[in-house]
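hey can u check if this looks right to u? its 516 residues, i copy pasted from the old doc so theres a chance i mangled smth
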Amino acid sequence: MKFRLCTLLAAFAVLTSSTVAVAQDSADSKPLNVLLIDGQNNHKWKETTPLIQATLESGDFAKVTVATAPGKGEDKAGFAPKFADYDVVVSNYNGEAWSSETEKAFEAYVSAGGGFVTVHAADNSFPNWNAYNRMIGLGGWGGRNEKDGPYVRWKEDQKKFTRDMSKGGGGQHGKRVPFMMVVRDASHPITAGLPKSFLQVADELYGKLRGPAENMNVLATAYSNPATGGTGEHEPILMTIEFGKGRVFHTTLGHDVPAMNGLAFQTSLRRGTQWAATGEVTLPAVSAAKMGSDEAATGDPAKASEVEDNGQAASSNSNVNFDAAPDLKADGWKSLFDGKTLDGWNRKNGTAKYRVENGTIVGTTSEGSPNSFLCSDENYDNFELTFEVNVDEGLNSGVQIRSQSREKGGRVYGPQVEIESAPGEAGYIYSEATGRGWITKEQPIKDAYKNGKFNRYLVRAHGNRIQVWIGDQKISDIQDPESSTDGFLGLQVHGIKAGTGPYEVSWRDIKIRNLN
C-alpha cells in the first residue's frame, strides 16, 4: 500500500532490482555488515539478540556487530555508534531515548541512504521522536493515539488497505497463537520469494498500530482473531518505508525465543535486511513445502540459510515452458485417483454425492445443497494438472486449485477452473466464494468444451501464473497475485435450484506433476 505516488523512474528501479536480484545468488556477494542494537526492551532481549544474530549470520549472509545501549536510568551520552560504518542497522531496542546527538546522527544515516530494520517491540520505542515514527511507519504503545496517525488495515471485502483516523490508543495484541500470514504485495523483492500465505508459530500478533504511515508499503498481513483476544482486523505484519533516500523494513514478528525459531520470522528477516541494505534481494526462494500454510514451520536460526531453496530464485522458470501445454509424456506425473476408491479425497461444504463407477468419479447434485467439493487431502503449490471430465448439459462445474476452506462451515474458496457445456465459460478462472468473481476478465472462447463427451483439461499453476487448455486449445493465461499459491484441489458439484436435476459430472485420469 503506497501512500504517495512514486515516480516512473523509481518504479522502474524497483522492478529492475527485483528482476536482477532473483537471478543472482547471495553467495556472489560479501556478507552484509550489520549493526544490531539492544540494551533495553520490555522483552527478553538478552535471549533474542543472539537469535537475530544467528539468523543473519547463517550461511555467511551477514557479519553482525552488537551495540548494547546503557540500561534504564544510565547515562546515554556515550552511546554513539558509527552508523555510517554499516550497511544496515537492526533494532532490538525498546527503551529510553538516546542523546539528541545520537538521534540526529541516526536520522542523517537513514535519510542519506542507510538501511534500517525494526524488529517486534522496537516499534514501541521513541514515541516522541518524530523522525523515528516516520521511519517505522506505524508504532504501538508509549501513549500513541489518533494524534500520531491512522490505524492501517487490509479490508477483505474491499480488497484494499484503509486508513482509520478514529480515536483510540496505539498498540494491542491477543494471546500468543500461531497465525496465517498473507502476502499482499507479491511483486516486492522481499516477498517475491515467499509463498503467498504461510504460518508463523505462536507469536504476538500486533494490532492497532498507528503512526504517520508515510511512504509505506504493507507487504503482508495477518488476521487478528477476536476469539484469541484480537482486533478482528487484518493487521500489517511486514512493511517497508522510504525515509529520504533510506530503506526501512519493519517486522512485527519475533516476541520471544519460540517466535524467532519460526521460519516465517527468520526468512522474512533475512530478506528484509538485505533489501534494506541494498535495495534488492538475492537470497533464493523459500517454497511452500518448507514454509507453508498447513503447519507452522520451525528451525534453528543458525541454520536459517539451509531452508532457502538452493539456487532456486523466486522467478526462475527454467523447467517450465509457458509457451506450450503440459507434456503428458514428461516424467513425474502422479495419479490422484486409483480408479476404484475415493482414497486421498474428502468432501467439503455441500451434500452432493460422490461415487466411483467404471473408473470414474461421479458427482451427483443434491437439491437444496450449496456447492459441494470433493477435495484432495494434500496441498499443492506449483504444478501441472490434467483430467478428463464430462458434465451434463444444464450443469456447470469446476475444479478448485490452490484452495482453502474457512473454519466456520468449511466453505471452500479460491481459484476454480470452470467446467461448463458449450456455449459457456469452460476453461476460464473464477474466484470461488471470495467476492472477486471472474479472475479471467476476457472470455472470447465459448465453444472449446465438446458437449456429451469427456474433455481433456490441462492446467499449469506456477507462481502467480495460471494457464488452462481444453484439448489443444489454450483458454486462460493469467497472472493472479491475490490468490494463494498453495492449497488443495477440489472437484465441484454445483448447487441446483429446487425442482431441477438431478445432474451428474464425471472425472477420470486425474494426474498431477509437481514443478519446482
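The first strand starts at residue 32 and ends at 38.
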